[in-house]
Amino acid sequence: MRVPSAPARRTVLAGALAVSLLSVSSSALADAPKDRTQAGALVLIGGALEESNTQVYGEIIKRAGGPGARIGIITAASVPESQDPHAGDPERCSNSACNGAYYADVFKRHGAADAQWLPLDIDHVVNADSDAVVAQVNSMTGFFFGGGDQYRYVTTLLRGDAHRDSKVLAAIRAKLARGAVVAGSSAGAQIASGPDMVTGGESYEGLRDGSAPGYFDDATRLGHLPEGGFGFLRSGLVDTHTGAYGREGRALRLASDTGHDRVYGLEENTALVVDRPGSSREHLSVLGPNGVAVLDLRDARAHESREGWSLHRARYSYLTDGDQYDARTWTPRVHPSKQPLKPVGTAPVPVNADVFFSAANPDGVPYGFRTTARALASTRAQSSATATTFESGPRFTVTFTKARGFAAFTGDGTDARTLLSLRVDIAPR
Q: CATH homologous superfamily for 36-302?
C-alpha cells in the first residue's frame, strides 16, 4: 500500500461533513465524562510520523505493556474505502482500512504483541456503538489514532448535538482512566483537544480575518469547534504540523479569539507525552527530532484597529527532545544534557519575508518562525528581530524580542536548540 503521508494543506471534507457547526450547544459537554482525571498517558505526534521512528513507536509500545502490548488502531479520520479510487490496489490505496493495516504492521514490526484495526469510519458509524467493537477495545492495552481530518472522528465517534461519547469512545476513555496509553498523529493528536479544537485555516487568513465557529469549505478560513474533540488534553489548545505548515499565526489568533492562555504546537515526527492528563499532576515531555512550541498568552493583549488585528506580549517557548513541562505551574525543565547558550555570533538575523510559510509562495521554506527565533537567540548583535508575512493587505510583522525571562539552550555549544519565553508581537503594517 501507499504509505500515509502528511495531509494536504487544503484538505476539504465532502458532502455531509462540510457543514456548519454553529448550532451546536457549547454547554452540552457538561453531560459527558470528559473532565475526569486520567491515570494513563497521551502520546501526541505533530504528524508525518516516520515508520523508522523507533523512539516514538517504542514509547507507545512501552506504555502499552512492552512485549505484551496490544494496540488498537483507529483511522476514522481517513476517507473510507468507498471514497478511495485506489482501494483495490495495495500499493496505492490510502483509506481507513488500508491505513489501519499499515499501522498495525508497523506496530508489530516495532515489537507490539498485537495490533488490530478497529473497523470504524464514516461509512461504518454504527460500529462505534457495536458491542463487538467495544469488546475489541477492552482487549487492548493502548490505542493509536491516525491522521486525516479530525472532524471525521467527531462524526464517527461522537453522538448528536451534545457530542456524547459513542460506546467505543466511552470504552477507550475508560481504558485511559485506568492507565492505558492513547496516542495519535496529526488529526489523531488534534482530536485529543478540549474546547475550541481547530477545524482548519491558514495563518495569514486567520490573522487578517479572525476565527469563527464551524467547519468551512474554504480551508484557508480559520475555524474551530467550540465543543472540542475528545477532551483528553485540556490544559491548552493543540495544533499540529506547526512549523512545517507555518501554523504559529493561526494558533495565536485562535487562542486569543477564544480566550485560551496556552497552545501546544506539535512538530512533525515528534511527540508530546502527557502523563496523568487532566489532573493537578499533569506532566509533559518531548520526544523526537523536532520539538513542541508552547505559546503563552497569559500577558498577551489583542487589539483591533482600522489597520488590522495585533497581538502584543505573547511568549514563545520551543522545547526539544528530553525537555519537560509542568502544565500546572507553567514551568519548563530543560534536559540536563543541554547547556545555556552563550551567543557569539555578530551577523544580523537573516531577513524572513515569509514567516508563516505561505502556500502562495512557490519559494517558501518551512519552519520560518522557528528559524528566525533561533537565529536571534544565537546572535549577540541584536536583542530583537522582525519577520513578515508573504501576503500583504495588510502585511503582518512579527517581532521577536529577548525580553526579561528569555533563555536559550544548546546541545553542541554553538546553535540554539531549546528556547524559553521569547516575546512575540504581531502587528499589521
A: Class I glutamine amidotransferase (GATase) domain (3.40.50.880)
CB-side neighbour CA atoms (13 Å) of 428? 18
Domain boundaries, the chain: 36-302, 309-323+337-428
CA nearest 270: which of 248, 292, 251? 292
What is the distance between the alpha carbons of residues 132 and 127, in angstroms, rounded to a whole number? 8
CA distance 352 to 216: 30
Per-residue burial over 355-366, b if 16 or more Cβ lie within 10 Å, else e, is: bbbbbebeeeee
> Average pLDDT, whole number, for the chain?
92
CA distance 353 to 321: 29
Neighbouring CB atoms inside 10 A of 303's CB total 11
Instruction: Give pLDDT tens digits for 223-243.
Output: 999 999 999 999 999 999 999
Residue 82 C-alpha cell reads as 468507498
Between CA 401 and CA 299 the distance in angstroms is 15
**What single-letter amino acid sits at 370?**
R
Give every CB contact of residue 246 below 8 A, 6+ residues apart in sequence. 202, 203, 354, 355, 356, 357, 358, 366, 368, 369
Identify any residues that bridge with 263 across adjacent strands, giving them in sequence order.
Answer: 237, 295
- Name the strand (E) or helix (H) holding 408: strand 407-410
Percent of the chain's residues with pLDDT above 70: 91
Predicted TM-score (pTM) of the model is: 0.93
The beta strands (E) that lie in 47-160 are given as 70-74, 114-117, 142-145, 158-159
Backbone angles phi, psi at 182, to 5 degrees: -120, 120
**29 is written with which cell numbers?**
459537554
- Asked if 337 and 411 touch (Cβ cutoff 8 Å), the reply is yes
Q: Which amino acid, 142? A: G
Question: For position 39, what pLDDT does the model report?
Answer: 85
φ and ψ at residue 325, rounded to 5 degrees: -155, 130
Q: What is the DSSP string of 270-337?
A: -EEEEESTTSTT-EEEEESSSEEEEEE-TT-EEEE-SS-EEEEEEEEEEEETT-EEETTTTEEE--TT
> In whole angstroms, what is the distance from residue 147 CA to residue 11 CA?
12
- Contact yes or no for 182/42 (Cβ under 8 A): yes
> Which grid coordinates are listed for 358?
505561505
